[in-house]
Design brief:
Layout: E1 3-8, H1 11-42, H2 44-47, H3 51-85, E2 90-95, E3 99-104, E4 107-112, E5 118-121, E6 125-129, E7 135-139, H4 145-158, E8 161-162
Parallel strand pairs: 5-8
Antiparallel strand pairs: 1-2, 2-3, 3-4, 5-6, 6-7
Length: about 160
């Protein structure tokens, strides 16, 4: 079966997609480690940490959020640059049994399903990852049940993690 989906991309949709990606890429382990360091710094007095340990813990507490903001800002800037270059803001996705194809006035990219690493489902979009930082965001409002079933079936066939 083949499905085609067209939508008009907006800066808001790009912002949400990049934010979803950066939060997903941070992961629970990084968030947990950051939370432990932050808690240790905030409660250093009651738990009796010496000044050297507090200074050491301050490094990730101060640097980590800065790195997250820089990473998000860089991705958003790159995405917005591509958006500005688009004469037509229309994007077409074509989903077949073999691949996913994305078409816009900037060009066409075809990615075989076997390249898919993971899928993240959110209320407003699904992120389909085809590499560490290679992903497409598909708006759920444009997806019918048949397309969702195709994507999930392909993920299951390939052992791709779906959240």
């Amino acid at each position: 079966m083949e499905y085609e989906l067209q939508f008009t991309v907006t800066p808001e949709f790009i912002r949400k997609g990049n934010l979803r990606h950066i939060i997903d890429s941070i992961g629970k382990s990084w968030l947990g480690a950051f939370g432990i360091c932050l808690a240790a710094v905030l409660f250093s007095g009651p738990i009796g940490l010496d000044k050297q340990t507090i200074r050491l813990l301050m490094v990730p507490v101060l640097i980590t959020p800065v790195m997250w903001v820089i990473g998000y800002s860089t991705m958003l800037w790159r995405s917005n640059e591509r958006y500005r270059r688009m004469a037509s803001k229309e994007i077409t996705f074509r989903f077949t049994g073999e691949s996913v194809t994305t078409c816009s006035d900037l060009g066409t990219a075809e990615v075989p399903w076997r390249m898919m690493d993971k899928i993240r489902r959110y209320p407003e979009m699904w992120l389909l990852y085809f590499g560490k930082n290679a992903y497409i965001y598909v708006p759920t409002e444009k997806m019918d049940e048949g397309l969702k079933e195709l994507i999930l079936r392909k993920a299951s066939e390939l052992g791709v993690k779906v959240k």
